[in-house]
Amino acid sequence: MLVPTDMVGPQAKLMNQIDKFQTVQVSDRNIGTRKTIHDVCTVVQDMLKEVEAQEPRFISSLTEVNGRFDGLRVVSPTEFEVVLYLNQMGEFNFVDDGSMPGCAVLKLSDGRKRSMSLWVEFITASGYLSARKIRCRFQTLVAQACDKSAYRDSVKMMNDASEVKIRIREKYVVQITPAFKCNGVWPRSAAQWPSMTMSWPHPNLAAQVKMEGFDLLSKESIALQNKQSSTSMEGDAWIISLHEAENILMVGGARKKVLSMLKTIRDRHLDLQGNPVTVYILQTLMLYECEKHPREEEWEESHIGDRISGIIMQLISCLQCRRCPHYFLPNVDLFRGKSPSSLDNAAKLAWRLMRELLTNTKALENL
Q1: 106-115, 187-196, 280-289 — which is least confidently predicted?
Q2: Cys bridge to 293: 34, 283, 298, 365, which one at CB 3.0-4.6 A?
Q3: pTM recorded for the entire structure
């Protein structure tokens, strides 16, 4: 395709800026994050070994495979989540009826005796496997492991009433979340995906995503907090996480480059009090951008600038509407629990970023 001669210069300059941003800012972030991850995971692995020694049902699943820790999620440069995969869920049925947005319950299968389950003391009188009871037991074990750990001088249990969180070297916060992996099944609350009208993703990729399935996490649901009619079952419910399914959709073209650049921009300019703009929100908006721009050529390196601008515009729109729907579970609002003032502040800063990108040809050099 012939490009008008007056466009060749600006496009070449933009590509040069993107390459420089990737080489300097993104690389610096990646190197720093990798080192932090290694240090954090060394401490967490030691603690989880201690937990496993006390309670063999909580087997550590935090292992390094090809330089990547399975179950580790980066929330921000100083905040991480480790998902601890538990065994033996076969005797429970997965119930996802939509009554609790983004959540499901695990009910003992008909005819199964409670006493035969590996998790017998965590099953309620109604036959539900309680996420809260498992988390309470795990919290006690982690607190004991903190005292016995080889790193006890640099690790502290955080006083969080509901979640299992530790602080490492007074600098890093790690939430450790017990979970069950549900491969080969797809939650009913995500049944509307993919829409028949969408041309992305390709049906083969969509099938692969659905086969990956989802995780059930034992953590507090922000969506269920402050509900008028709170029931005990809500405390027993498990959060549906489609983290791995989302990662499968991030392949192809310059998608990973776009996400790396967005994470770097977020850490440098949108890492605000109350954390209104998380990495996960940017990743979610990127999936919506993939739907808006379904052709692979729209994700080539020459379109990186357009894709980043488009995602920041989406972010501004969501911040102003004060709603950001989960990509697979549209009834779940990712801004739930965020203060209106923090969302307004983030919207102003995102606008400032957008203006800089649109009006300054050397914007990336300063970001």
Answers
A1: 106-115
A2: 298
A3: 0.91
Residue 7 pLDDT grade (very low, low, confident, very high; cuts 50, 70, 90): very low
Q: Contact, 286 vs 311, CB < 8 A? A: yes
The first and second tokens of residue 87, run together, are 């065994």
**Cα 209 to Cα 186: distance, rounded to the nearest angstrom:** 9
Measured between alpha carbons, how far is residue 80 from residues 32, 38, 69, 182, 297 in Å?
Answer: 14, 12, 12, 22, 34
Measured distance between the N- and C-terminal CA atoms of the chain, rounded to whole angstroms: 32
Cα–Cα dist 141/51, whole Å: 6
CB 119 within 8 A of CB 57: yes
The mean pLDDT value of the chain amounts to: 89
Closest by CA to 129, choosing from 87, 161, 101, is: 87
Interatomic CA distance for residues 127 and 134, integer angstroms: 14
Question: In one letter, which amino acid is 309?
Answer: S
At residue 12 the predicted structure's pLDDT band, cuts being 50, 70 and 90, is confident
- 50 or 357: which leads in pLDDT: 50
Quick check: 62 and 37 in contact, CB under 8 A? no
- 3 state SS of 115: helix
* Residue 181 host element (H or E): strand 172-182
Place of tokens 């996400």: 259
Q: For 254-287, write each residue's pLDDT tens digit.
A: 999 999 999 999 999 999 998 999 999 999 999 9
d(CA 14, CA 336): 37
Specify whether the CB–CB gap between 66 and 58 falls below 8 A.
no
Structure tokens at 299: 């994700």
Q: What is the DSSP string of 46-93?
A: HHHHHHHHH-TTS-----EETTEETTEEEEETTEEEEEEEPP--TTEE
Q: Is the pLDDT of residue 56 over 70?
A: yes
- Per-residue confidence (pLDDT) for residue 61, from 0 to 100: 87
Q: How far is CA 227 from CA 98, 100, 224, 337, in A?
A: 15, 10, 6, 12
